[in-house]
UniProtKB/TrEMBL annotation:
The keyword Aminoacyl-tRNA synthetase does not apply. Keywords: Hydrolase, Magnesium, Manganese, Metal-binding. The record marks 228 as: Important for catalytic activity. Its cofactor is Mg(2+); Mn(2+). NCBIfam families: exoDNase_III, xth. Mg(2+) binds at residues 8, 36, 153, 155, 257-258. This is Exodeoxyribonuclease III. It comes from Streptomyces mexicanus. Belongs to the DNA repair enzymes AP/ExoA family. Probably binds two magnesium or manganese ions per subunit. It comes from the Bacteria. The active site is at residues 109, 153, 258.
């Protein structure tokens, strides 16, 4: 089995103080993909930066205190790559990938965007470049007999089943028609050619949500968004046997506004 967990930690230093360290000690994951780390490696306590039993790649953003992605792997990777060949985005702490036997695993933090601002324009530019890279990555992996798994915070709810209050968000970043169409292209066999693994295993349910605002009682009411995805090439997706959102038992026990998403594959 290959078990991969993705988690937007909403600041790794803060998460470490709230329970991430204890969660990490208990996880059975073989690979951990983190997003929104928001720290330079030297700013992290050693037991978080390089915990015993893990090989760790940190890819912080050039802009201090923003973004940042990391990969923790039980096995030492055969190859590591930070960024996806983008002049604009390779130092933005939004993508890192590693080759393990038979599979390339990546941690993605797609920009969140905000309608009517430069942040949304940045998101659109990122999506355009990244879809082209996803196609190239899939083709290159196929030529090498490898599979691909891109886990992370995609910051897009694909369908109405992926957020509780879809009616109130049709004009907001994260649920815009053009964003949803882009994700459709990522998942279209004739385009990106990838599979949304969690949705494939849970086809007829609302959610399971992965992010809840800290405002109001969103978590208690399960008024969330499913924006943390595990997106895989079809061969690997077909081997997925289990996908769970590790939702905290209570609001007080959360160490992030996101919950870890864990997928188990037969190997």
């Amino acid at each position: 089995m290959l078990t991969v967990t993705s988690a937007n930690v909403n600041g790794l230093r803060a998460a470490a103080r709230k329970g991430f360290v204890e969660w990490l000690a208990g996880t059975g994951a073989d690979v951990l993909c983190l997003q929104e780390v928001r720290a330079e490696p030297q700013q992290l306590p050693e037991h978080v930066r390089t915990p015993e039993g893990w090989h760790v790649i940190h890819a912080p953003a050039a802009a201090k205190g923003r973004a940042g992605v990391s990969l923790y792997t039980r096995r030492e990777p055969d190859r590591i790559q930070v960024g996806f060949g983008s002049t604009e985005f390779d130092t933005s702490g939004r993508y890192v990938e590693a080759d393990l036997p038979g599979v390339t695993v990546a941690s993605l933090y797609l920009p969140s965007g905000e309608v009517g601002t430069e942040r949304q324009e940045e998101k659109v530019r990122f999506m355009g470049e990244f879809l082209a890279y996803l196609k190239e990555l899939r083709e290159r992996a196929a030529a090498d007999g490898r599979e691909v798994l891109v886990c992370g915070d995609w910051n897009i709810a694909h369908t109405r089943a992926d957020l509780k209050n879809w009616r109130g968000n049709t004009k907001n970043s994260g649920f815009l028609p053009e964003e949803r169409e882009w994700l459709t292209q990522v998942l279209a066999p004739e385009a990106g050619g990838y599979v949304d693994v969690v949705r494939a295993l849970h086809p007829d349910v609302e959610g399971p949500y992965t992010w809840w605002s800290y405002r109001g009682r969103a978590f208690d009411n399960d008024a969330g968004w499913r924006i943390d995805l595990a997106v895989a090439t079809p061969g690997l997706a077909a081997r997925a046997v289990k996908a769970v959102v590790e939702r905290a038992a209570s609001h007080e026990e959360r160490w992030s506004d996101h919950a870890p998403v864990t997928v188990v594959f037969e190997t």
